[in-house]
Fold this protein.
Amino acid sequence: MRSARREATASTPAPSGRIRLSPAGASGRNPMLSALAAQVIGVVFAGLLAAVLIPQLSRQPLALAALQGACAVLASWRLGEPAWRLPIHAIFMPSAVLVHGMDLPVWLWPAGLVLLLLVFWRTDRSQVPLFLSNRKCGDAVLELLPATPCRVLDLGCGDGALLRQLVRARPDCRFVGIEHAPLPWCWAWLSARGKGNLEIRLGDFWNHSLEGYALVYAFLSPAAMPRLAIKADNEMTTGARLVSNSFPFPDRKPEAVVDVVDRGHTRLHVYAPLKTQWQ
């Protein structure tokens, strides 16, 4: 069903001294200000283009909004924002124009904001969107589990579907999932009721130790991977494996890459974390 490609682990020397974990997604730039800057630049450039080259767009709000979206995408790309933000920038202003003409009740706006917070929570801070793993990814992870009973951790488990799949196949193992968004956590927690070897926790997985787990699974984003690599090196037990869905550690070769045969051509990057020597 899939092929696994083995690669030699990069011989990266373990850094000396205590490694400090910076805040999630820390890159020296506020993600909200960066997104706002892309939108403002999009408005300015779209206004200039419409005024100088295409004055008739001033009478076509939707077309002008689409032009602003394209300019915002270009600005976002030049600012080095994550790729998953580009389609959001593209549809933000056109969506606002479309909704503006609808006769919607006032309460719908705060209700929509609350719903978004419950589903995604502070994605602007974590820079980790809600990604859900499909069943074929679960089958691939299942084959990566040790043959003996073990502990498995899912960082940002979402609705818990992957863990429930693993629980059914491996009742001899203990599974833990951590999710910070309230609504996906609630769904995962309720679905875990009655499963003695599955525990769903509400919270920030950055505050949870990776020690003692034979396999740690993560489906995060490129922004989170540098910090996760440091956390894994500091905390994971010797011989354990970290499996990252789609997003590799920067500047480090995995010990194996599993190509999952699904619509998204998913790749699972398997790492044996380095052990850090404390001074």
